[in-house]
Amino acid sequence: MSKICPNCKSENEDSAEFCQECGTKLPQYSYSVPPAGEEKTEPKKGNWWSKQTNMVKVLTIVGGCCVGIIVIIGLLAVLFPDATTFNYYVGDTTALTKTFSQNGLTFNYPDDWQTATSQGDIVSSGSSVQYLTSLYGSDGLTLHVSMGDLAAVGATMAQTKEATKTNIQGGSSAKLLSDTQTTVNGLTMYKMIFTLTDPTNNQENKVLTAITGREGQKVYYLQFIAETSVFDNNQKLMDNILNSVKVS
Q1: How high is the pLDDT of residue 68?
Q2: To 5 degrees, how large is the angle CA 111–CA 112–CA 115?
Q3: CB burial of residue 104 (10 Å; 0-12, 13-18, 19+)
Q4: Are 132 and 114 in contact (CB under 8 A)?
Q5: Where do transmembrane segments lie in this chain (predicted)?
Q6: Which is nearest to 188 in space by CA: 168, 209, 210, 155?
Q7: pLDDT score recorded for residue 217
Q8: Which letter, b or e, does each residue of 65-77 get, where b requires 16 or more Cβ atoms within 10 Å of its Cβ?
Q9: What local confidence, expressed as pLDDT, does residue 45 receive?
Q10: Which pairing describes strands 218-227 and 142-149: parallel, antiparallel, or unpaired?
């Protein structure tokens, strides 16, 4: 510790009463002099974020999230300009407010769908299949529903699925696109998708045949058919209908 003369700024011993250079009376307190070559350090200044109030921080975060959502929506609108196709990717919100319930089979379908007044043309029809109903939407997607009796024909669900696939592929224009198995509400469900060409106008259609039921009891066929673009635009809706299927 040392004393700095207030007059000439000379450094004096801490015990000195007068400046050894100019004789000025020195103050009773002392100054701390940093060692030679060492500079005083200024306190670090905080960054922009640390200086903001909590309200500003909250508004900044919320604003950033809103901008991000707008950007994502804009990208989706550019990538999927067709509203129907867009619904397929983000989830079809069509309400399934109507219920079909007959012969132990129950499922839901859209409110604007109509019931056909005559029997539909079931692609996989056979002598052991009983027609139940046909439903259709305004865009041309049609659903044919039929049933069979596994006990009567002595077949398993898997055998019935293979027989149905063979029947459909019997047509020269039929081409199998997918063959999958899943579980819906505790029931095994087989789903097969085919392409079929209508010989009258060469229009390409797609068919989704879903088969479900209980082993040794009733088996049910739900068959969707539509022109290819209509079919593709309704895949989420068809999945929703099939996911509502129950068998009593």
Answers
A1: 82
A2: 95
A3: middle
A4: no
A5: 58-80
A6: 210
A7: 92
A8: eeeeeeeeeeeee
A9: 57
A10: antiparallel
Task: Tell me what pLDDT residue 220 has.
Answer: 95
107 by Cβ neighbours in 10 Å (0-12 / 13-18 / 19+) ranks as buried
Return phi, psi of residue 206, to 5°.
Answer: -120, 145
Q: What angle do CA 185, 187, 188 make, to 5 degrees?
A: 130
Model pLDDT for residues 186-238, shown as the tens digit of each residue: 999 999 999 988 777 788 999 999 999 999 999 999 999 999 999 999 999 99
Out of 3.30.70.250, 3.40.1000.10, 3.30.470.20, 3.30.300.20, select the CATH number for domain 95-247. 3.40.1000.10
Residue 86 is which amino acid? F
Q: Give domain limits for the chain.
A: 1-39, 51-81, 95-247
Q: Which residue has the tokens 């899943």?
A: 182
Residues with pLDDT less than 70, the chain: 1, 29-46, 77-94, 118-128, 171-172
Give the angle subtended at the CA of 43 by the CAs of 38 and 45, to the nearest 5°: 135
Spatial contact of 226 and 142, defined as CB atoms under 8 Å apart: yes
* Nearby residues of 69 by Cβ (< 8 Å), 6 or more positions away: none
